[in-house]
Amino acid sequence: MSDERMKVGIIGLDDMLGGGLIPGSICAIIGTYGTGKTTFALQFIWEGLKKGEHIIYISLEEREERIFEYMLQKGWDIKPFMNKSLFVLKLDPTDFNLANNRIKNELPRLIKQVNAYRVVIDPISLFEDLFDSDSIRRQEMFRFVESMRDQKCTIMMTSETDKDNPFSSRHALIEYLADTVILLRYVRPSDLTDVHLALEVVKMRMSAHSREIKPYEIQQDQVLVYSEANVF
Hints:
This protein is an alpha/beta fold. It is about 30% helix and about 25% strand. The protein has seven helices and ten strands. Strands 1, 2, 3, 4, 5, 6, 7, 8, 9 and 10 form a ten-stranded mixed beta sheet that branches. The longest helix is centred in the middle third of the chain and has 19 residues, at about 95-115. The chain is globular and about 50 Å long.
């Protein structure tokens, strides 16, 4: 892997990652509802578009037009990039055969076809849901992640947390397969006067990284991670 880092484009987070993600690696953003997983992924995309990179966004939840609308609401002029360097695809996770085939077989071909440098899958947990048993899910996800490594692009996957464990993804699997794991969560002080958003870089293979828990804020046009501040 190259020593040059690929910036996520979030102030403070890239510092915690030692300058950004390692090119060609796989990053998992894990968090419960409302913590901004998709917003983090959109920042990753926008950073790439500004650099002239080609990008594929696979959505298993939101329709294409809503993804474009979110980005326009942030004041990002994405129209010059649409279907030229930014390709957004919506997959129906209720159609197992179609979603499974398109992600496993068509996505690698599409990455080569458009020469994608960044790929987002949002959320990967809906793809994991397609498999009936833990053993099959583990086997299929391992094969899928290994096939993605061969594509030489940097991948960001979002994942919902387990309903009983805010520190684990829904199937407790993607955090073992990904190279970098960023956990988003709520932090509530003992007096319950306010709710804070906080993140930590749980894991980053082949790189030193911050292990501190840092507050972050989702603003209209950007995410700010206060890497010099403490949660309380």
